[in-house]
Amino acid sequence: MAGKDNSVNIKGDGAKATGAYHHGDLRAAVIAAGLTRLAEGDGAELGLRALARDVGVSATALYRHFPDKEALLDALADEGLRRLGALQAQAWLKAGGGVAGFKATGIAYVRFAHDEPALFRLSFTRQMPERYTKDAGDGGEVAYNLLRAGVGEALPGVDPDTAALHAWALVHGLAMLILDRRIEWDEAKVAEVVGLTFGGVG
Amino acid sequence: MAGKDNSVNIKGDGAKATGAYHHGDLRAAVIAAGLTRLAEGDGAELGLRALARDVGVSATALYRHFPDKEALLDALADEGLRRLGALQAQAWLKAGGGVAGFKATGIAYVRFAHDEPALFRLSFTRQMPERYTKDAGDGGEVAYNLLRAGVGEALPGVDPDTAALHAWALVHGLAMLILDRRIEWDEAKVAEVVGLTFGGVG
DNA sequence: CTCGAAATGTTTACAGTGACAACATATGGC
DNA sequence: GCCATATGTTGTCACTGTAAACATTTCGAG
Protein backbone atom coordinates (compact mmCIF):
# COMPACT_ATOMS: atom_id res chain seq x y z
CA MET A 1 0.00 0.00 0.00
CA ALA A 2 1.88 3.03 -1.16
CA GLY A 3 3.85 4.58 1.56
CA LYS A 4 3.75 8.28 1.43
CA ASP A 5 1.34 11.14 1.14
CA ASN A 6 -2.07 10.83 2.77
CA SER A 7 -0.88 13.13 5.55
CA VAL A 8 -4.02 13.76 7.51
CA ASN A 9 -2.97 17.26 8.46
CA ILE A 10 -4.68 17.42 11.77
CA LYS A 11 -3.77 20.61 13.49
CA GLY A 12 -4.67 21.76 16.95
CA ASP A 13 -8.28 22.71 17.31
CA GLY A 14 -7.75 26.40 17.17
CA ALA A 15 -5.71 27.57 20.12
CA LYS A 16 -3.12 29.94 18.79
CA ALA A 17 -2.17 28.67 15.38
CA THR A 18 1.12 30.50 15.56
CA GLY A 19 1.93 29.24 12.12
CA ALA A 20 5.62 28.72 12.57
CA TYR A 21 7.65 27.29 15.37
CA HIS A 22 5.00 26.73 17.97
CA HIS A 23 2.03 24.63 17.33
CA GLY A 24 -0.59 25.80 19.79
CA ASP A 25 -1.61 22.55 21.39
CA LEU A 26 0.55 19.83 20.03
CA ARG A 27 -0.31 17.24 22.60
CA ALA A 28 -3.98 17.29 21.67
CA ALA A 29 -3.18 17.37 17.96
CA VAL A 30 -0.95 14.32 18.26
CA ILE A 31 -3.61 12.40 20.09
CA ALA A 32 -6.19 13.36 17.50
CA ALA A 33 -3.89 12.26 14.70
CA GLY A 34 -3.21 9.04 16.54
CA LEU A 35 -6.90 8.31 16.87
CA THR A 36 -7.41 8.99 13.20
CA ARG A 37 -4.64 6.62 12.23
CA LEU A 38 -5.99 3.96 14.53
CA ALA A 39 -9.42 4.39 12.99
CA GLU A 40 -8.13 4.03 9.46
CA GLY A 41 -5.37 1.46 9.13
CA ASP A 42 -6.10 -1.41 11.48
CA GLY A 43 -2.94 -3.38 11.20
CA ALA A 44 -0.68 -0.44 10.45
CA GLU A 45 1.81 -0.10 13.24
CA LEU A 46 1.39 3.50 14.48
CA GLY A 47 4.91 4.97 14.42
CA LEU A 48 6.21 8.11 16.02
CA ARG A 49 7.61 9.60 12.83
CA ALA A 50 4.44 9.10 10.83
CA LEU A 51 2.43 10.64 13.62
CA ALA A 52 4.73 13.63 13.81
CA ARG A 53 4.50 14.08 10.06
CA ASP A 54 0.71 14.05 10.23
CA VAL A 55 0.80 16.89 12.65
CA GLY A 56 3.45 18.70 10.66
CA VAL A 57 6.16 18.61 13.24
CA SER A 58 9.57 17.09 13.72
CA ALA A 59 9.70 13.55 15.07
CA THR A 60 11.45 14.37 18.30
CA ALA A 61 9.05 17.19 19.10
CA LEU A 62 6.68 14.61 20.50
CA TYR A 63 9.13 13.98 23.30
CA ARG A 64 8.30 17.38 24.74
CA HIS A 65 4.81 16.13 25.47
CA PHE A 66 5.27 12.44 26.12
CA PRO A 67 8.18 10.76 27.91
CA ASP A 68 8.21 8.00 25.32
CA LYS A 69 6.06 6.13 22.87
CA GLU A 70 4.47 4.07 25.60
CA ALA A 71 3.14 7.19 27.26
CA LEU A 72 1.65 8.35 24.00
CA LEU A 73 -0.07 5.04 23.50
CA ASP A 74 -1.31 5.19 27.06
CA ALA A 75 -2.94 8.52 26.32
CA LEU A 76 -4.62 7.08 23.25
CA ALA A 77 -5.77 4.06 25.23
CA ASP A 78 -7.25 6.33 27.84
CA GLU A 79 -9.20 8.22 25.25
CA GLY A 80 -10.45 4.92 23.90
CA LEU A 81 -11.79 3.89 27.29
CA ARG A 82 -13.42 7.27 27.68
CA ARG A 83 -15.21 6.90 24.36
CA LEU A 84 -16.29 3.39 25.19
CA GLY A 85 -17.78 4.58 28.44
CA ALA A 86 -19.59 7.41 26.70
CA LEU A 87 -21.08 5.09 24.08
CA GLN A 88 -22.26 2.70 26.74
CA ALA A 89 -23.90 5.45 28.75
CA GLN A 90 -25.58 6.66 25.60
CA ALA A 91 -26.85 3.17 24.79
CA TRP A 92 -28.18 2.75 28.30
CA LEU A 93 -30.17 5.96 28.11
CA LYS A 94 -31.47 5.30 24.65
CA ALA A 95 -32.83 1.91 25.73
CA GLY A 96 -34.57 3.47 28.72
CA GLY A 97 -32.48 1.78 31.39
CA GLY A 98 -33.47 -1.40 33.13
CA VAL A 99 -32.58 -4.81 31.80
CA ALA A 100 -32.99 -3.66 28.22
CA GLY A 101 -30.58 -0.83 28.90
CA PHE A 102 -28.13 -3.26 30.44
CA LYS A 103 -28.20 -5.45 27.38
CA ALA A 104 -27.80 -2.41 25.15
CA THR A 105 -24.74 -1.51 27.15
CA GLY A 106 -23.22 -4.88 26.43
CA ILE A 107 -23.99 -4.66 22.76
CA ALA A 108 -22.48 -1.19 22.58
CA TYR A 109 -19.30 -2.65 24.04
CA VAL A 110 -18.99 -5.20 21.28
CA ARG A 111 -20.01 -2.73 18.60
CA PHE A 112 -17.31 -0.33 19.68
CA ALA A 113 -14.74 -3.08 19.37
CA HIS A 114 -16.01 -3.80 15.89
CA ASP A 115 -16.09 -0.17 14.80
CA GLU A 116 -12.72 0.78 16.26
CA PRO A 117 -10.72 -2.42 16.38
CA ALA A 118 -7.30 -0.90 16.75
CA LEU A 119 -8.36 1.58 19.39
CA PHE A 120 -10.24 -1.06 21.34
CA ARG A 121 -7.32 -3.43 21.29
CA LEU A 122 -4.91 -0.72 22.28
CA SER A 123 -7.15 0.43 25.10
CA PHE A 124 -7.18 -2.97 26.71
CA THR A 125 -3.71 -4.17 25.89
CA ARG A 126 -1.94 -1.31 27.63
CA GLN A 127 -0.51 -2.35 30.95
CA MET A 128 -2.49 -1.06 33.88
CA PRO A 129 -0.58 1.89 35.41
CA GLU A 130 -0.37 0.21 38.82
CA ARG A 131 -1.91 3.18 40.60
CA TYR A 132 -5.23 2.21 39.18
CA THR A 133 -7.32 2.58 42.29
CA LYS A 134 -11.05 2.96 42.42
CA ASP A 135 -11.05 6.75 42.16
CA ALA A 136 -9.87 8.81 39.20
CA GLY A 137 -12.51 9.71 36.66
CA ASP A 138 -10.99 7.93 33.72
CA GLY A 139 -13.29 6.17 31.34
CA GLY A 140 -12.72 2.62 32.46
CA GLU A 141 -14.39 3.18 35.79
CA VAL A 142 -17.41 4.81 34.23
CA ALA A 143 -17.99 1.69 32.20
CA TYR A 144 -17.55 -0.60 35.16
CA ASN A 145 -19.97 1.35 37.30
CA LEU A 146 -22.62 1.07 34.63
CA LEU A 147 -21.98 -2.64 34.57
CA ARG A 148 -22.44 -3.02 38.28
CA ALA A 149 -25.59 -0.97 38.21
CA GLY A 150 -27.21 -3.03 35.50
CA VAL A 151 -26.25 -6.44 36.71
CA GLY A 152 -28.31 -6.16 39.86
CA GLU A 153 -31.48 -5.69 37.88
CA ALA A 154 -30.81 -8.38 35.34
CA LEU A 155 -29.91 -11.15 37.76
CA PRO A 156 -31.51 -10.34 41.10
CA GLY A 157 -30.62 -13.51 42.95
CA VAL A 158 -26.94 -13.76 42.02
CA ASP A 159 -23.84 -12.43 43.69
CA PRO A 160 -23.39 -9.12 41.87
CA ASP A 161 -19.64 -9.50 41.72
CA THR A 162 -19.84 -12.84 39.96
CA ALA A 163 -22.60 -11.64 37.67
CA ALA A 164 -20.68 -8.49 36.76
CA LEU A 165 -17.58 -10.45 35.94
CA HIS A 166 -19.63 -12.86 33.88
CA ALA A 167 -21.20 -10.07 31.88
CA TRP A 168 -17.94 -8.28 31.31
CA ALA A 169 -16.10 -11.42 30.29
CA LEU A 170 -18.87 -12.35 27.92
CA VAL A 171 -18.90 -9.11 25.95
CA HIS A 172 -15.14 -8.76 26.12
CA GLY A 173 -14.74 -12.24 24.75
CA LEU A 174 -17.15 -11.56 21.93
CA ALA A 175 -15.31 -8.34 21.18
CA MET A 176 -11.89 -9.97 21.06
CA LEU A 177 -13.08 -12.92 19.01
CA ILE A 178 -14.53 -10.51 16.48
CA LEU A 179 -11.37 -8.42 16.42
CA ASP A 180 -9.24 -11.47 15.82
CA ARG A 181 -11.55 -12.71 13.10
CA ARG A 182 -12.55 -15.83 14.96
CA ILE A 183 -16.18 -14.95 14.51
CA GLU A 184 -18.12 -12.51 12.37
CA TRP A 185 -19.69 -9.32 13.61
CA ASP A 186 -23.45 -9.86 13.79
CA GLU A 187 -25.39 -7.64 16.10
CA ALA A 188 -28.42 -9.93 16.30
CA LYS A 189 -26.18 -12.84 17.22
CA VAL A 190 -24.47 -10.80 19.89
CA ALA A 191 -27.81 -9.81 21.37
CA GLU A 192 -28.88 -13.43 21.37
CA VAL A 193 -25.74 -14.63 23.10
CA VAL A 194 -25.86 -11.91 25.71
CA GLY A 195 -29.52 -12.67 26.32
CA LEU A 196 -28.74 -16.29 27.07
CA THR A 197 -27.61 -15.53 30.58
CA PHE A 198 -29.15 -12.12 31.07
CA GLY A 199 -32.85 -12.68 30.43
CA GLY A 200 -35.18 -10.38 28.59
CA VAL A 201 -35.32 -11.28 24.95
CA GLY A 202 -36.54 -7.78 24.18
CA MET B 1 33.78 -18.98 15.08
CA ALA B 2 31.62 -20.29 17.88
CA GLY B 3 33.74 -18.70 20.52
CA LYS B 4 31.09 -17.44 22.84
CA ASP B 5 27.88 -19.40 23.07
CA ASN B 6 25.94 -18.55 26.27
CA SER B 7 23.05 -19.36 24.03
CA VAL B 8 20.30 -21.57 25.33
CA ASN B 9 21.47 -24.16 22.89
CA ILE B 10 18.17 -25.57 21.87
CA LYS B 11 19.03 -27.88 19.07
CA GLY B 12 16.87 -30.04 16.94
CA ASP B 13 15.63 -33.23 18.51
CA GLY B 14 18.36 -35.43 17.20
CA ALA B 15 18.30 -35.47 13.43
CA LYS B 16 21.85 -35.24 12.19
CA ALA B 17 23.65 -32.88 14.53
CA THR B 18 26.20 -32.11 11.89
CA GLY B 19 27.96 -29.88 14.33
CA ALA B 20 29.10 -27.16 12.01
CA TYR B 21 27.43 -25.51 9.10
CA HIS B 22 24.22 -27.39 9.03
CA HIS B 23 22.01 -27.54 12.01
CA GLY B 24 19.98 -30.67 11.56
CA ASP B 25 16.50 -29.34 12.01
CA LEU B 26 16.69 -25.63 12.36
CA ARG B 27 13.04 -24.96 11.84
CA ALA B 28 12.02 -27.03 14.83
CA ALA B 29 14.82 -25.59 16.94
CA VAL B 30 13.76 -22.03 16.17
CA ILE B 31 10.18 -22.77 17.10
CA ALA B 32 11.28 -24.41 20.33
CA ALA B 33 13.43 -21.41 21.19
CA GLY B 34 10.56 -19.10 20.37
CA LEU B 35 8.23 -20.96 22.67
CA THR B 36 10.80 -20.79 25.42
CA ARG B 37 11.17 -17.07 25.03
CA LEU B 38 7.44 -16.58 24.98
CA ALA B 39 7.14 -18.61 28.14
CA GLU B 40 9.77 -16.58 29.96
CA GLY B 41 9.63 -12.89 29.17
CA ASP B 42 6.03 -11.86 28.78
CA GLY B 43 6.42 -8.34 27.55
CA ALA B 44 9.71 -8.92 25.77
CA GLU B 45 9.23 -8.38 22.08
CA LEU B 46 10.50 -11.60 20.47
CA GLY B 47 13.07 -10.48 17.88
CA LEU B 48 14.57 -12.40 15.03
CA ARG B 49 18.16 -11.74 15.99
CA ALA B 50 17.70 -12.84 19.58
CA LEU B 51 15.97 -15.96 18.42
CA ALA B 52 18.74 -16.77 15.97
CA ARG B 53 21.33 -16.27 18.70
CA ASP B 54 19.49 -18.68 20.99
CA VAL B 55 19.73 -21.34 18.37
CA GLY B 56 23.35 -20.48 17.60
CA VAL B 57 22.84 -19.41 14.06
CA SER B 58 23.14 -16.28 11.99
CA ALA B 59 20.12 -13.98 11.94
CA THR B 60 19.36 -14.33 8.27
CA ALA B 61 19.52 -18.10 8.43
CA LEU B 62 15.95 -18.08 9.64
CA TYR B 63 14.88 -16.86 6.22
CA ARG B 64 15.70 -20.26 4.76
CA HIS B 65 12.85 -21.70 6.79
CA PHE B 66 10.35 -18.86 7.10
CA PRO B 67 9.50 -16.27 4.44
CA ASP B 68 9.45 -13.55 7.06
CA LYS B 69 8.88 -12.87 10.73
CA GLU B 70 5.14 -13.10 10.34
CA ALA B 71 5.40 -16.65 9.11
CA LEU B 72 7.54 -17.57 12.08
CA LEU B 73 5.02 -16.07 14.47
CA ASP B 74 2.27 -17.93 12.65
CA ALA B 75 4.07 -21.18 13.28
CA LEU B 76 4.40 -20.35 16.97
CA ALA B 77 0.74 -19.40 17.13
CA ASP B 78 -0.20 -22.68 15.56
CA GLU B 79 1.77 -24.59 18.14
CA GLY B 80 0.03 -22.59 20.83
CA LEU B 81 -3.39 -23.60 19.55
CA ARG B 82 -2.28 -27.18 19.37
CA ARG B 83 -1.18 -27.13 23.00
CA LEU B 84 -4.36 -25.45 24.09
CA GLY B 85 -6.38 -28.16 22.40
CA ALA B 86 -4.32 -30.86 24.02
CA LEU B 87 -4.74 -29.39 27.48
CA GLN B 88 -8.47 -29.11 27.00
CA ALA B 89 -8.77 -32.68 25.85
CA GLN B 90 -6.77 -33.77 28.85
CA ALA B 91 -8.97 -31.77 31.23
CA TRP B 92 -12.09 -33.25 29.67
CA LEU B 93 -10.85 -36.78 30.18
CA LYS B 94 -9.63 -36.18 33.71
CA ALA B 95 -13.04 -34.84 34.73
CA GLY B 96 -14.74 -37.85 33.27
CA GLY B 97 -16.59 -36.06 30.51
CA GLY B 98 -20.12 -34.80 30.76
CA VAL B 99 -21.01 -31.41 32.11
CA ALA B 100 -18.17 -31.52 34.61
CA GLY B 101 -15.77 -32.27 31.80
CA PHE B 102 -17.17 -29.40 29.80
CA LYS B 103 -16.59 -26.99 32.63
CA ALA B 104 -13.11 -28.37 33.14
CA THR B 105 -12.45 -27.68 29.48
CA GLY B 106 -13.39 -24.04 29.95
CA ILE B 107 -11.26 -23.68 33.03
CA ALA B 108 -8.31 -25.24 31.22
CA TYR B 109 -8.72 -22.59 28.54
CA VAL B 110 -8.40 -19.78 31.03
CA ARG B 111 -5.61 -21.47 32.90
CA PHE B 112 -3.61 -21.86 29.73
CA ALA B 113 -3.97 -18.14 29.08
CA HIS B 114 -2.75 -17.45 32.58
CA ASP B 115 0.17 -19.87 32.40
CA GLU B 116 1.34 -18.87 28.94
CA PRO B 117 0.16 -15.32 28.46
CA ALA B 118 2.41 -14.39 25.56
CA LEU B 119 1.76 -17.59 23.67
CA PHE B 120 -1.96 -17.37 24.22
CA ARG B 121 -2.10 -13.79 23.04
CA LEU B 122 0.04 -14.56 20.03
CA SER B 123 -2.05 -17.56 19.14
CA PHE B 124 -5.22 -15.53 18.95
CA THR B 125 -3.86 -12.26 17.64
CA ARG B 126 -2.43 -13.74 14.45
CA GLN B 127 -4.57 -13.02 11.47
CA MET B 128 -6.56 -16.00 10.29
CA PRO B 129 -4.89 -17.42 7.16
CA GLU B 130 -8.04 -16.98 5.07
CA ARG B 131 -8.09 -20.59 3.95
CA TYR B 132 -9.26 -21.55 7.39
CA THR B 133 -11.98 -23.96 6.42
CA LYS B 134 -13.47 -26.62 8.61
CA ASP B 135 -10.97 -29.31 7.74
CA ALA B 136 -7.26 -29.25 8.47
CA GLY B 137 -6.19 -30.87 11.70
CA ASP B 138 -4.65 -27.84 13.32
CA GLY B 139 -5.21 -27.29 17.00
CA GLY B 140 -7.89 -24.65 16.82
CA GLU B 141 -10.43 -27.00 15.36
CA VAL B 142 -9.78 -29.65 17.95
CA ALA B 143 -10.68 -27.19 20.65
CA TYR B 144 -13.79 -26.05 18.87
CA ASN B 145 -15.04 -29.55 18.35
CA LEU B 146 -14.69 -30.27 22.03
CA LEU B 147 -16.66 -27.16 22.70
CA ARG B 148 -19.50 -28.18 20.44
CA ALA B 149 -19.59 -31.63 21.95
CA GLY B 150 -19.86 -30.39 25.51
CA VAL B 151 -22.32 -27.62 24.95
CA GLY B 152 -25.11 -29.96 23.96
CA GLU B 153 -24.96 -31.77 27.26
CA ALA B 154 -24.71 -28.67 29.40
CA LEU B 155 -27.59 -26.77 27.86
CA PRO B 156 -29.94 -29.28 26.24
CA GLY B 157 -32.69 -26.89 25.22
CA VAL B 158 -30.61 -24.17 23.63
CA ASP B 159 -29.44 -23.67 20.07
CA PRO B 160 -26.01 -25.30 20.18
CA ASP B 161 -24.49 -22.64 17.99
CA THR B 162 -25.53 -19.85 20.32
CA ALA B 163 -24.54 -21.82 23.37
CA ALA B 164 -21.16 -22.67 21.93
CA LEU B 165 -20.46 -19.07 21.07
CA HIS B 166 -21.55 -18.04 24.52
CA ALA B 167 -19.23 -20.49 26.19
CA TRP B 168 -16.31 -19.60 24.00
CA ALA B 169 -16.76 -15.89 24.43
CA LEU B 170 -17.06 -16.29 28.17
CA VAL B 171 -13.80 -18.12 28.69
CA HIS B 172 -12.01 -16.09 26.06
CA GLY B 173 -13.13 -12.90 27.75
CA LEU B 174 -11.97 -14.14 31.13
CA ALA B 175 -8.65 -15.13 29.60
CA MET B 176 -8.08 -11.78 27.94
CA LEU B 177 -9.12 -9.79 30.99
CA ILE B 178 -6.66 -11.77 33.06
CA LEU B 179 -3.90 -11.31 30.50
CA ASP B 180 -4.45 -7.59 30.41
CA ARG B 181 -4.53 -7.37 34.19
CA ARG B 182 -8.10 -6.22 34.34
CA ILE B 183 -8.90 -9.00 36.76
CA GLU B 184 -6.87 -11.40 38.86
CA TRP B 185 -6.38 -15.04 38.13
CA ASP B 186 -8.52 -17.05 40.55
CA GLU B 187 -9.49 -20.54 39.52
CA ALA B 188 -12.40 -20.79 41.94
CA LYS B 189 -13.79 -17.52 40.67
CA VAL B 190 -13.46 -18.68 37.09
CA ALA B 191 -15.29 -21.90 37.90
CA GLU B 192 -18.03 -19.92 39.58
CA VAL B 193 -18.48 -17.58 36.65
CA VAL B 194 -18.50 -20.36 34.13
CA GLY B 195 -21.00 -22.25 36.23
CA LEU B 196 -23.41 -19.33 36.20
CA THR B 197 -24.64 -20.13 32.73
CA PHE B 198 -23.57 -23.72 32.42
CA GLY B 199 -25.17 -25.40 35.39
CA GLY B 200 -23.70 -28.07 37.58
CA VAL B 201 -21.95 -26.51 40.53
CA GLY B 202 -19.87 -29.63 40.93
C1' DC C 1 32.79 -42.64 -6.74
C1' DT C 2 32.35 -38.04 -9.00
C1' DC C 3 30.29 -33.97 -9.82
C1' DG C 4 27.19 -30.46 -10.20
C1' DA C 5 22.58 -28.75 -8.55
C1' DA C 6 19.93 -27.67 -4.67
C1' DA C 7 19.61 -26.72 0.17
C1' DT C 8 21.24 -24.41 3.93
C1' DG C 9 24.06 -20.97 6.47
C1' DT C 10 27.08 -16.49 6.53
C1' DT C 11 28.47 -11.76 5.70
C1' DT C 12 27.43 -7.35 4.37
C1' DA C 13 24.43 -3.71 3.74
C1' DC C 14 20.24 -0.77 3.80
C1' DA C 15 16.10 1.53 5.17
C1' DG C 16 13.26 2.31 9.05
C1' DT C 17 12.47 2.66 14.17
C1' DG C 18 12.55 4.84 19.07
C1' DA C 19 15.37 7.69 21.63
C1' DC C 20 19.07 10.94 23.30
C1' DA C 21 21.98 15.34 23.17
C1' DA C 22 22.93 19.79 21.60
C1' DC C 23 21.09 23.64 19.57
C1' DA C 24 17.32 27.19 18.04
C1' DT C 25 13.30 29.80 18.74
C1' DA C 26 9.19 31.52 20.77
C1' DT C 27 6.41 32.90 25.24
C1' DG C 28 5.36 34.83 29.43
C1' DG C 29 6.44 36.81 33.99
C1' DC C 30 9.32 40.34 36.17
C1' DG D 1 12.68 45.14 27.72
C1' DC D 2 14.78 40.95 29.28
C1' DC D 3 15.73 36.55 30.43
C1' DA D 4 14.11 31.79 32.21
C1' DT D 5 11.47 28.29 30.39
C1' DA D 6 8.78 25.79 27.32
C1' DT D 7 8.70 24.10 22.91
C1' DG D 8 10.56 22.57 18.28
C1' DT D 9 14.74 21.13 15.22
C1' DT D 10 18.89 18.78 13.57
C1' DG D 11 22.10 15.16 14.05
C1' DT D 12 23.16 10.90 15.64
C1' DC D 13 23.06 6.14 17.74
C1' DA D 14 21.72 1.39 18.52
C1' DC D 15 18.59 -1.70 16.96
C1' DT D 16 15.30 -4.05 13.84
C1' DG D 17 13.57 -6.79 9.68
C1' DT D 18 15.18 -8.17 5.38
C1' DA D 19 17.42 -8.33 0.70
C1' DA D 20 21.76 -9.62 -2.08
C1' DA D 21 25.89 -11.92 -2.77
C1' DC D 22 28.78 -15.43 -1.27
C1' DA D 23 30.17 -20.02 1.21
C1' DT D 24 29.48 -24.66 2.51
C1' DT D 25 27.22 -28.90 2.90
C1' DT D 26 24.14 -32.58 1.13
C1' DC D 27 22.23 -35.48 -2.27
C1' DG D 28 20.97 -37.65 -6.49
C1' DA D 29 22.36 -38.85 -11.31
C1' DG D 30 25.95 -40.36 -14.37
Describe the 3D structure:
The structure is a homodimer of 202-residue chains. Chain A has two domains: 7-67, no CATH class; 71-197, Tetracycline Repressor, domain 2 (Orthogonal Bundle). Helix content of chain A is 61%, strand content 0%. Chain A has helices spanning 26-40, 48-55, 69-94, 98-115, 117-125, 139-154, 160-179, 187-197. The first copy, chain A, is elongated, with a radius of gyration of 19 Å. The N and C termini of chain A lie far apart (45 Å). Chain B binds a DNA duplex (30 and 30 nucleotides) through loops.
Structure keywords:
homodimer; 202 residues; Tetracycline Repressor, domain 2; 2 domains; 61% helix; elongated; DNA-binding
In short:
2 copies of one chain form a homodimer. With 202 residues, chain A is mostly helical.
SSE pattern of chain A:
HHHHHHHH
The number of helical segments of chain A is 8
CATH topology of the largest domain in chain A: Tetracycline Repressor, domain 2
Distance between the termini of chain A: 45 Å
What structural category arises from helix and sheet content of chain A? mainly alpha
Radius of gyration of chain A: 19 Å
Domain count of chain A: the total is 2
Instruction: Please give the oligomerization state of what you see.
Output: homodimer
CATH-level-2 architecture of the largest domain in chain A: Orthogonal Bundle
Poorly predicted regions of chain A: 1-19, 130-136
**What is the H level of CATH, i.e. the homologous superfamily of the largest domain in chain A?**
Tetracycline Repressor, domain 2
- Shape, per Cα inertia axes of chain A: elongated
- Look at the structure and give the CATH class of the largest domain in chain A: Mainly Alpha
Give a short account of the largest sheet of chain A. Answer: none
